[in-house]
Design goal:
single chain, 229 residues, Rossmann fold, 2 domains, five-stranded parallel β-sheet, four-stranded antiparallel β-sheet, 12 strands, globular
Length: 229
Amino acid sequence: MSKTKILYVEDEPFLGRIVKESLEVRDFEVRMVTDGKLVQSVFEELHPDICVLDVMLPNKDGYAIAQDIRKLNATIPIIFVTAKTQTEDLIKGFEVGGNDYLRKPFSMEELIVRVNNLLQLTQKLSSGPKESIAIGKFEFAPQRYELRKDGKAKKLSHREAVLLQILAENQNANIDRKAMLMRVWGDDSFFNSRNLDVYITKLREYLREDSSIEIITIKGVGYHFAVGN
């Protein structure tokens, strides 16, 4: 069985070496890059299964790198590792194609949990139903990460697609917030809860072209995904 390949981008040599060696001990294949401008060529050579990107890097930051990667591969999981925790930083990361955030300093156990969780979600989504799912006036294709309406397709990020699939499976029903967090992130921490809020805001924006669709927040419960006929 081949090892899971991780493209790890970090310009702090001491931290980078510790993380790389710790992942390799756990049987991951890790290619570490310290300069942002070199990432694309390494990505094309390595064909990684997942990317772990620092945000602050020389020559090209993690956000720009993620945009480059998304042009080459629309579905590969991307985790940002950063000291930035402001909401606007989270939103920017998601907008450029990130799937998750890990705050510095972090434990190796947390990184590995997030890596494995994203890989499992990717596998589940790719092995899910091949047919499109009708959501009001939209057609959602989980495997292609596409939301279509009137012949136009909107490409979704990995997390957006997973969350929309949960919503699509529960049309006109209540969805427990904790259950969503556990299914998508593997824990219901405050940080992940903030991430969920950001993603729900983005999905509301995507779906607003159909006035019969509404993601209703139910305080103390979660959400109700209302879809009209």
